[in-house]
Write a structure and sequence with these properties.
single chain; alpha/beta; Rossmann fold; Histone, subunit A; six-stranded parallel β-sheet; 13 helices; globular; disordered N terminus
Length: 320
């Protein structure tokens, strides 16, 4: 046996996903789990699964951990895209799986952390991305113009309730894409992300963080105000020269779109804050609906001090 072969782990460490709605404490839990494992001689690295944290400069509005807050734990897939770039789940899937394989090759445990359900599912489960049909897309885009997006949303809800629940109704591009896939494949867009499908890797653990709705709503509203106090408006203003206004994805991110409209004189600052709060609450509801459908998820209570130890013990069990 070669020295290289001897250096390889007998079994790859499991892929561990930490999911849940925004504001439940996923990032803090991931750090705590990594530190808990380190005390037991096991290394862990964090792989970002928050779509907006992929963008450079989008920090305050995405609750991205600052370098010091990462406490020396390696983080992957933060700040990899320019704000002018359009997000692609297929591209993310490729990047995330490559990062996970790299982490596993070192014998470390990859912690996939985030609340972007589509992104998480695309990594954890065998999901192939259907191609596109320009004629179908053009026809759907024309319908969105003539009939209005609500008509397309109603159609999507009838044909694919799962996709309709998961997709931001303000994201016209994603709504059109879902209907396009349904027409091309004859199958629901959400079928490819069904949690009953075979996992990408056999050894996969999924943990979800739950927080009572009333408590979460209050915390989210307060967090939006705190983001404003921390300089959220200045952050968005600084991204304008970098092309955020032309970025199909970044410009529509919750909070960023509202501040861009405020800076353009299209709404008051207070309206921008209240709109961001409302959209954040709605987004959290969609996240809960998405993650609750996965029967493999082991649910933990947000803020439970025993949660890191629970996750750590499950990981050590999978490693033994």
């Amino acid at each position: 046996m070669t020295a290289h072969a001897q250096a390889q782990p007998a079994q790859l460490p499991p892929v561990v996903a930490l999911v849940g709605a925004t504001g439940t404490g996923k990032s803090d839990l991931a750090i705590a789990v990594a530190k808990s494992l380190a005390e037991r001689g096991v290394t862990a690295e964090i792989v970002n699964a928050d779509a907006m944290q992929l963008y450079r400069g989008m920090d305050i509005g995405t609750a991205k951990l600052a370098e010091a807050e990462r406490q020396g734990i390696p983080h992957h897939l933060l700040d990899v895209w320019d704000v002018s770039r359009e997000a692609s789940v297929a591209d993310y899937q490729s990047l995330a799986r490559a990062a996970i394989r790299e982490v596993q090759s070192r014998g470390s445990v990859p912690l996939l952390v985030g609340g972007s359900g589509l992104y998480v599912s695309s990594v954890l489960y065998e999901f192939e991305f259907p191609g596109t049909d320009p004629s179908v897309r053009a026809r759907l885009e024309a319908r969105a113009e003539s009939e209005g997006v609500p008509a397309l949303l109603d159609e999507l809800a009838a044909k694919d309730p799962l996709a309709a629940a998961a997709i931001d109704p303000q994201n016209t591009r994603r709504v059109i894409r879902a209907l396009e896939v349904i027409e091309i494949t004859g199958k629901p867009f959400g079928a490819g992300l069904d949690a009953e499908h075979r996992p990408w890797q056999d050894h996969t653990l999924v943990f979800g963080l739950h927080r009572e709705r009333d408590e979460l709503v209050t915390a989210l509203d307060e967090r939006v105000r705190a983001m404003w106090d921390r300089g959220f408006v200045d952050e968005v203003r600084s991204l304008i020269p970098q092309g955020i206004e032309s970025g199909v994805t970044a410009s529509r991110a919750i909070g960023y779109q509202q501040i861009l409209e405020y800076l353009a004189g299209e709404m008051s600052e207070e309206d921008a804050i209240e709109s961001t709060q409302s959209l954040t609450r709605r987004y959290a509801r969609r996240q809960v609906s998405w993650f609750r459908r996965d029967q493999r998820t082991q649910w933990l209570t947000s803020g439970d001090t025993s949660a890191p130890d629970q996750v750590g013990k499950a990981i050590l069990g999978a490693l033994s």
